């Protein structure tokens, strides 16, 4: 066994320990430090490998990459984490894709069928993950409209494109020397990534980010097969498994299948049903202002908070923490209810609340917190919509029927912070707003929470 | 370049995938965002493949492709570990009166 192989073995062990350490916030940081040490060992080992004879391009790339990585990791605000993660999926996939192209360019006259197949799969997966992830990032960042973009026959176009690509993949594998087909396959793969994400709306992004995480991992593993590099196979498999598990969890939390997310174009189809639901509502929702809301909170003993994407959009998490601190110092018990698909990526709400110094012991999963809603005096909903809609339990015709939700409507009082009465992403009107014990507090969530925090001090402070 | 797919590599892939399933299903949803950031950082291991290609100095085309690949992977490695640590640092147990 060479020293290089030993380095790789050590770093594989460190990576596995690092991922394992994420099972608890207490061990996570130490574990990730170990993983980064593993990475350092692997990279240094490779740099000293005898096959590496020229360093100029390597060091240029490492220096440039390090410089570019600082703004997107240390300076980026936590509310922009989803698009940042998506961008790095794109970067990782591009790297694997380019190495595949370089290998094909160099060896295409001597490739066996076996290795040609691997190179082609690597380049195809890498290319579509690259453009797909870029689209995801652009949609999340608001550069492209977050609504699904659909046209007639879209699924037929996508599916035929996919089969065309598979046919070309098989053809190029059997005839590695035909350059033209390889580069057409490459271009089609770039195009396919764009087409795949076009019909998917912003609220489905938790699933799509996780799927591309998985694809990125697989691309890495295939690159490992190509270069005969086992540590890449191991990390690729870990990464792929992680993305796969997350996408399944996200799909379950939306009561949908992966194919439905990719080809369903959710928000578009449901518009008609939405109007029917709207008409069936008899009375207007009740609204309150800050002072009335304060009176509710003054009488409350237990409060459960259900945050959603709206909290991230208005950056209300710091203001929320201030308000909760006020409540807590006055003896109110406060818990946070986190729906798995609240926000734009898995765990999005947890990170934002952690950033606002909310202890993670106050954050609860949907399954843990749901039995507690009937005992809560107030459920405070901040910018969450579809994940609180009781129609998911009762209305069979509703497109979100069967989706697991936070049972906020079972609390004694429900206060909803909302910008306007616009329905949520799914286009379904929220029945919660029309119940007798629900009050809407219109306005920017950050504004309202700041006012609540300030006024609460005035009433109780002296 | 390695010569295609061999069976040992496939075994390694399958076993590592099973290990991944076991490990990752134990991770609480609380830490799913740092998990994604962490797998991002670790998948930057493609850096070593990119280094191997860039270091062979075959011709201008492969050098430039590998240079871009080294840059992208380095961003993932350095940026990935930095942001994972930044996120994990924020998770605290008790209400800290930091200010």
Concise overview:
The complex is a heterodimer of chains A (462) and B (99). Chain A is α/β, with parallel strands linked by helices.
Description:
The complex is a heterodimer of chains A (462) and B (99). Chain A contains 20 helices and seven strands. By secondary structure, chain A is of the alpha/beta class. Chain A has a seven-stranded parallel sheet. In chain A, helix 5 (81-107) runs antiparallel to helix 6, helix 7 (154-174) runs antiparallel to helix 8 and helix 14 packs across helix 20 (445-460). In chain B, 73% of the residues lie in helices and 0% in strands. Chain B is built from four helices and no strands. Chain B has helices spanning 7-25, 32-43, 46-55, 60-90. Chain B is flat and about 55 Å long. The termini of chain B are far apart. The chains are: A alpha/beta (462), B mainly alpha (99). Chains A and B meet through helix 1, helix 2, helix 3, helix 4 and helix 5 of A and helix 1, helix 2, helix 3 and helix 4 of B.
The ordered string of helix (H) and strand (E) elements of chain A is: HHHHHHHHHHHHHEHEHHEHEHEHEEH
As a percent range, the share of helical residues of chain A equals 55-70%
SSE series of chain B: HHHH
Q: Approximately what portion of the residues of chain A adopt beta-strand conformation?
A: 5-15%
The major sheet of chain B is characterized as: none
Q: Top keywords for this entry?
A:
heterodimer; A: 462 residues; alpha/beta; Rossmann fold; 3 domains; 7-stranded parallel β-sheet; 20 helices; 7 strands; globular; B: 99 residues; mainly alpha; 73% helix
How would the blueprint of this fold be written?
The complex is a heterodimer of chains A (462) and B (99).
Chain A: H1 3-21, H2 25-47, H3 56-69, H4 71-75, H5 81-107, H6 113-141, H7 154-174, H8 179-197, H9 205-227, H10 230-254, H11 258-264, H12 266-269, H13 271-280, E1 286-287, H14 290-299, E2 302-307, H15 309-313, H16 317-329, E3 333-338, H17 348-355, E4 363-365, H18 366-369, E5 378-382, H19 391-394, E6 413-418, E7 438-442, H20 445-460
Parallel strand pairs in A: 1-7, 2-3, 2-5, 3-4, 5-6, 6-7
Helix pairs in contact in A: 1-2, 1-10, 5-6, 5-9, 6-7, 6-8, 6-9, 7-8, 9-10, 14-20, 16-20
Chain B: H1 7-25, H2 32-43, H3 46-55, H4 60-90
Helix pairs in contact in B: 2-4, 3-4
